[in-house]
Design goal:
197 residues, disordered N terminus, mainly alpha, rod-shaped
């Protein structure tokens, strides 16, 4: 049971802590080397391993300590490089969503009773932009931005601009061509068409 706990604790440790103690170094020298490899100064490492601050250079000069520090630093470096590589791979993803899915997800949000009102309104606003329902200029209206489906169908059949758009579109416009014939329509019939399309 004791061994299982030790293994579990070791798996949570840093790469330096997971390495086995070098058989050539005393326990306090191994601890000193680990502390230095993890970024502590020599003086801090001396204190960490239970020695006096003044003994830092003595500990560093002991046989095998410099080599062990280099070995442990290399382990830390490799572990860091591996983690960076794994994170980079996780961050790169294939685009697996298409336009239809975006529109349908926004529609689902807009229709959901579970979403807050502000979220639903924002989803509808984005959908209105996608479907070009927000005309910003008269030219946009002339290019059918902001028209409803039934208005477009009616215009295709009759050539008449919807009542709600006439005051905007008719400003300064003259008679237009009939959608079926392409000829100028009778001024009485084209009242309100005003589309230069």
């Amino acid at each position: 049971m004791k061994h299982k706990k030790q293994r579990a604790e070791q798996s949570k440790c840093s790469p330096v802590e997971q390495t086995r103690t070098s058989p050539n170094l005393a326990a306090h020298l191994e601890e000193f080397a680990k502390a230095v490899a993890e970024g502590s100064s020599h003086v801090e490492a001396a204190e960490i391993c239970g020695r006096k601050r003044g003994s830092a250079s003595f500990l560093y000069d002991q046989p095998g300590v410099k080599e062990r520090i280099a070995q442990l630093e290399n382990l830390v470096k490799n572990a860091t490089e591996k983690a960076v590589t794994e994170n980079a791979i996780k961050m790169r993803r294939l685009v697996d969503i298409d336009r239809n899915e975006i529109v349908m997800r926004l529609a689902d949000i807009a229709r959901s009773d579970k979403e807050r009102g502000v979220v639903r309104v924002r989803a509808l606003s984005v959908l209105a932009e996608i479907f070009m329902l927000k005309a910003k200029t008269v030219k946009d209206l002339q290019q059918f931005y902001g028209w409803f489906s039934d208005e477009l169908e009616n215009y295709a059949e009759t050539g008449k601009v919807p009542e709600r758009l006439r005051p905007i579109v008719d400003e300064g416009e003259t008679e237009t061509a009939s959608p079926e014939t392409g000829k100028n329509s009778d001024p009485d019939e084209s009242a309100g068409s005003g589309m230069g399309c």
